Every structure is written in structure tokens, then in C-alpha cells.
Amino acid sequence: AAKIRGKARYVRYTDGMEQPVLAQMQTGGELRRALDENELVLFYQPIVDLESGRTIGVEALVRWRHPSRGLLLPGEFIPAAERTGLIVPLGRWALREACRQMIAWSAALGDAAPHKVGVNVSAHQLQDPSFPVEVTAALADSGLTADRLVLELTESAALRGTATTATLHALHDLGVKLALDDFGTGESSLSLLFAFPVAILKLDRSFVTGIELDTPAGLPDEARLAVPRAVQQMADALRLDTVAEGIENPAQALRLRQLGYTTAQGFHLSRPLAPEALAISLSRAAAPVGQQPA
Ligand code: C2E
Ligand code: MG
Ligand code: MG
Ligand code: MG
Description:
Layout: H1 20-36, E1 40-49, E2 55-66, E3 70-72, H2 78-84, H3 87-109, E4 116-120, H4 123-127, H5 131-142, E5 149-153, H6 162-174, E6 177-183, H7 191-195, E7 200-203, H8 222-238, E8 241-244, H9 250-258, E9 263-264, H10 275-286
Parallel strand pairs: 2-4, 4-5, 5-6, 6-7, 7-8
Antiparallel strand pairs: 1-2, 1-9, 2-3
Helix pairs in contact: 3-5, 5-6
């Protein structure tokens, strides 16, 4: 069992035991070093046109190549980053790195390169009034044009407030697109649609789960379809684009297409990939049939 002893404050634990508090302490303390030592990497998950199967964009998702714990997913360190404020330098790095990678792919792959990149932005980053200046610099330094950058936002207490609204309008004026991530959950609500110049709704994965299941009578389950249908109808009425998240099988993709979704993301379409793996996958997809690279 873990023990915290007096002023020495050291902690002992048995190998392999789940120690969430300890893990969080270590993660928070090590994250600064991880940033300095380039231990963070971005993986990229394709965002796919459901009709053609083509990758039209990618979402940048941070991973931590931890020297002893292996490849860590955001769920294991983003909460600590949010608490400690390190999410701000982490997010700044992610934005610049994603822009740089996009230009590198365009140079290497030409038309097969993804056209757009989505970068997740924390509410902490938006609270900084100089965030639009940072975005401008990231675009200018990389050479990426603003129309190829999508900033993915979720709601939180910090997303409200006049400073943030001004920031989001400034970003919109730069030509960058704003997406509401995890749309339909408590983190991303209808009220944001009218407060912010949003262009894209990302239907949360929880509304895709089970969408392919029929009722005992063998009919589509209208109760499960109701939210995805309503979100697509609302997006059509408001002239917004949609991306359905978390597509795990072809039956879900079919149902979403029937509801009017044209664009989706999920393990069935592709897992998030390291940049080199994504480049290989894209150049394969682009090669004419019969000339597939080995
Ligand atoms: P998100 O922005 O909603 O990203 C989508 C998450 O869903 C990713 O998890 C992705 O791997 C996962 N996913 C995609 N398709 C499927 C599927 O078919 N099934 C299932 N079960 N999951 C799927 P990941 O990479 O673990 O990231 C989790 C969250 O961490 C992200 O959710 C985002 O909120 C946050 N995050 C990731 N990178 C960054 C970053 O650079 N900055 C900030 N602020 N947050 C980040
Ligand atoms: Mg996202
Ligand atoms: Mg999402
Ligand atoms: Mg999510």
C-alpha cells in the first residue's frame, strides 16, 4: 500500500498497482520536462468523406512518449495540464507543430496531403487575449493558410465571457474555422451556437454508439436516431458543417449517411496515426489501382 511519511513525503507503492493520485502528482511534475525534452508528439486521425472514402482533413491528438511509462493518451495527462496551467504552453506547441506538419505533408504528398487540420484548444488558451496573435504567428511561421486550420472548442465555465467572445470573433476574422467539439454533451451546448461564429459541429461519439442497433421488431431505433438527426437538421438550417465522431463499424457509417452526414471520424475509418504512418496511408490511397506502392 502507498504510504506518505511525515516530512519526507515519499510514496511507496507496489508495481502495477493503480495509484491515481500518485500518478497525477508525477504527471503534473513531469509534464514541464516533457515539453522541454520534446517527449510530446501529435498523432493524426483522418476525417473522412463518407461517400468517397477520401481523407479530407485530420485531427491532431497529442500523445506523450513517456520514457518509462510508454505512449500515454491525453486522458492520462491533459487533466493535470489543465489544472497546472501547462495546457497553455502545451496547446501553443500543438498548434505550431500541427501547422508545420501540414506544410511538410503538402510538400511530400502534394494533392494527397490532408487539406485541413483540426487542433484542440483549451478554454485556458482562449482566455489569453493574445491568442489570435499566436494563431496568426503560427500560420505565418509555417506558411499554412488560415482556411486550412480548424480550432476545436468545448464549453466550460471559462469559455463564456466577453473576452472569449471577442477572441473567437478575431479568430473568425483571420479566416480560421471554429468547431464545437463533443457537440450535444454538457461540454458543448446549443447556447454556444449563437454566442460564437461557429462553422462546424462535431457530433459527440456518445450519440453514435448504438445507432446501428435495431429494435426487437427489427426496425431502426428511432429514439437513438433522434439526436443525430436533430443535430444534422439544425446544422443544415444554420448552414453549418458536421463531423460525426466515433464511427466504429460500417453499419454506423451507413445510418449516419442516411441521416445526411457526409463527414466522419472513427476507428472504423482510421485510428489516430503517427505522421509517418498517415503519410504512407495517404500515398497508398492516392496511388492509381494497379500501382499500389509495396
Ligand atoms: P476529442 O477532441 O473529442 O478527440 C477525439 C477522441 O476520440 C480521441 O481520443 C480519439 O482517439 C478518440 N476516438 C476517435 N475515434 C474513435 C472511435 O471510433 N472510438 C473511440 N472509442 N474513440 C475514438 P484521444 O486522442 O484519447 O483524445 C482525448 C481528448 O483529449 C480529445 O478529445 C481532446 O479533448 C483532448 N486532446 C487531445 N489532444 C489535445 C490537445 O492538443 N490540446 C487539448 N487542449 N486537448 C487535447
Ligand atoms: Mg477534438
Ligand atoms: Mg471530439
Ligand atoms: Mg471528445
